[in-house]
Amino acid sequence: MRAKHPIHTTLSTEAMNVLERYEQELGAKNIVLEKALLGMDKIRFKEKVDTQSIARVIKRVQTGIFGFDELVEGGIPEGFIVAVTGTPGTGKTTFSMQFLLEGLKKHDKCIFFSFEERIEQLIRQSIRYGWNIGEFLDKGYLEIFGFTMLSTEEIIEIIDTFKPKRIVFDSLNIFSDILDFRQSPQWRNITKKIKEKNITCFAITEKKHGLEVKEFDDFDFMADGIFFFDKQITHELDMQKAYIVEIQKMRLTKVNEMPQKFVFTDKGIEIKSSAGLAKTFEIHLKNKKHL
Question: What is the pLDDT of residue 177?
């Protein structure tokens, strides 16, 4: 039997398994094989942490929601997956459709995957705000899949073929069981594709509690950002509830974490924050100068 001549290495688990199997079968370690495996590991390691290939400037994607982008340094980092979550009837779908509309205005291709609403209902909702969704559908910039039962493979194929820059999923609670969501190979494969293509994605999810409860689910942990929508009584003398959105998380971004009031106008959602009011005043002054 040949003597063993181990060398000092930091081989990966996979490489060590190959080496140990070789040793068990032939009774000795092969120094040439060990060096070759070590070299392969180094190549893979360099590919994974090549800091020179990482962009230094964060490209941000604007939402098109009046007064909102100022709260997230001008927009959402491109390629992020944002959980648009909250209680029922608080504007999550409208907010997400408005996000797609902004992309369509910039000639970005967009997809809306709805797992519980028909296409007709979504189009009627857009007509309410004067959004000409039909024009973008006809020109091939927008695809809507209503009440869809598409498989993971079909969704990935659509993304590969259509090459969108923005995607909305409504809602993930229908697409996947929250109990095994993070381990689900279906969503992990879709996430991998979204990240590879650098697509900015809004994933609508549902909550059974409002902002007063600090409780998070697996949808929140997987997301790069969280926008929480709710309705609250903001003044004891006024029992009418106000619509609220709170930015609870946004990686690579300094955010305004204060709950922000918003309203539904004839053109969509508008934030009624101090930043939004300041912007309104600025526009008013500019218009006044041109008179």
Answer: 79
